[in-house]
Each structure stands twice: as structure tokens, then as C-alpha cells.
Amino acid sequence: YGKHYEIPLDDPEFSEFYILSGKFGMTHLVNKCSKTFKRDITLDTLLDDYRGAIVSNSPFAPEFQDVFIESLGLLSKTAVLYFVEELDQTTIEKILTSDKIKVDEYFKFEMISRWLSPQEEFPRYSQGIQHELMSYVRFELIDTDILKTHVKNNPLVDTNTYINAIENKLEKSIKSSTY
Q1: 59/57 Cα distance (integer angstroms)
Q2: Cα–Cα distances in Å, from 6 out to 20, 54, 59, 94, 159?
Q3: Average pLDDT, whole number, for the chain?
Q4: Are 123 and 155 a contacting pair, CB within 8 Å?
Q5: pTM higher than 0.85, yes or no?
Q6: 124 phi and psi angles, rounded to 5 deg
Q7: Handedness of CA 114, 118, 120, 123 (dihedral sign)
């Protein structure tokens, strides 16, 4: 008690410090571990490392998730689209609703579409989940040509959602041309 203890960040049992710090409410140690851990993550191995953390139920999976979200725009779009297929619904929702996500709305739409695409005989989602996930996309911010070619006839997008996006774009256009 009362003695300063330096965390051995290169110790293989580093995760134990992280877990125990969290259990005992030592937020300053949790933050220090988290910051150090995130500093050592590289974009080259991020998807594989994050996948491993999810599969092994690592205590660092949330840290990988944060770095993944912050790095989405820097990662290979193709690799990300294949990767999101492996995520569960809760994780995909956390990613889409994060205030740290820095991708355009069409990329969000592509991620959701890829996640919703049935990989098996039976889809893993209901209409309610489909609608909820699509509600995270601000379609009115997607380019009109992309809306017409990729969204309009997409069975995953409700017709009313498409119409509302086109109407919002039209209203903005009218307002900007009258001023």
C-alpha cells in the first residue's frame, strides 16, 4: 500500500494487469494499459489480430475494436468488407454507431449489405434487424448516381428509405438554388 508499482508492459502477463486493474476500478492503470496496447497495434496485422481477439475472447477485443473503427478509412476496403461478415450483430452496431467512425455513408451501406448477405441457406437476420442497421446510414449524403445505381433496387433497402433520401437531396438542391 502506498508504494508506486511500475507496470511491466513487456511482460507476457500484461493482460493480467489490465484485467485486475479493471476489476478493482483502477481506471488510471486501465487507461495506461489501453494506451500502451493501442500504440503497439499495426495496420498490417490489425484485422488478423482483431479476429484472433474475438475468437479467443481476449480482454483486449474492445481495444482492437476501437483501433479498427478509428482506422477504417486506412484499411483495405475489400479486406474490411470480408472481415465484417465475421462480426456479430452487437459488434457491427457498435462500429456503425461509434462517433469515431470516419467513413462515408456509402461505405457504411456496403458494410451493412455485406454483413446482411446470407452466407448460408438461411439468413442470420430478421427484417427488423435489417431495418435497424440500415437506419444507421444517412442515405441523403450518398451521391445521387450511387443511390440510383446501387441503392434504388437493392432488396435490403426499403423503398421509402430510398424515396426519402432522394426527396431530401431534392429539397437541399431547391433551397441552395433559391438563395
Answers
A1: 7
A2: 15, 29, 21, 33, 58
A3: 83
A4: no
A5: no
A6: -95, 15
A7: positive
